[in-house]
Design brief:
By secondary structure, the protein is α/β, with parallel strands linked by helices. Helices cover 34% and strands 19% of the residues. Helix 4 links the parallel strand 5 and strand 6.
Length: 265
Amino acid sequence: MAALEADLTGWSAGPFTAAGFTYDVYRKGDGPGVVLIPEMPGLHPGVLALGNHLVDNGFTVAAPSLFGTPGASAISPAMVTTLARGCVAREFAAFATNADRPVARYLRALARDLNERTPGKGVGVIGQCFTGGFALAAAVDDSVLAPVLSQPSLPFPLTPSQRRDPGVSEGELRIVEQRAANDGLCALGLRFSEDRMVPAARFRTLKERLGDAFEVIEINSKRGNPHGISPLAHSVLTDQVREVDGHPAYEARKRVVEFLTQRLF
């Protein structure tokens, strides 16, 4: 069974401005809030399908369109241009280590706003691929109770220091550490075992700093794995999901919903 896709049906869109940035935010659903940050190249049909799945499970989803064309296919010539622009944009700091990325301030403001608009104890934030680490950076704000880092790929892992980098600044990570120790904050991280864009060293750094407060789901993508997952597999919650009980990506998506439910309801 192929991964599910969806269009923009039922989503409302409007601009949200904070921290010097304005992006359209697509909203849908009722219940506790989840900020769903798109992966490259944007709010493609796989990301929208994930959003619909969260809505079906009782959440309000707010998905900021940080790049790309909402609803456009994940595979198109425009993807190269979108990725190139993202790599050089100052708000993403795609290559920098120990980076306090400007977009994180925008996402924290969006999380606060969503928290004020929705019921529940707080909000969740899901980051994916290019935006995976932004979920943890958002958790600097007290409104965020459930950060999910799905295949966090920034900074791009070209050097040993970039591979070890947690994807947030030292100042941000210290605040998250304090929240984990004092407030019971927990984070969830997902990656495929052979994904070179999401090095194991990055997850080791986060595990060393956050301990049991960082739950890791690592899916076997070695050659010959029982589920036939490619060594090139990357997107845990979108194009790799097969809605078959026991499929690792499907079970990982179930765990994400469970994690959000436990933390927010």
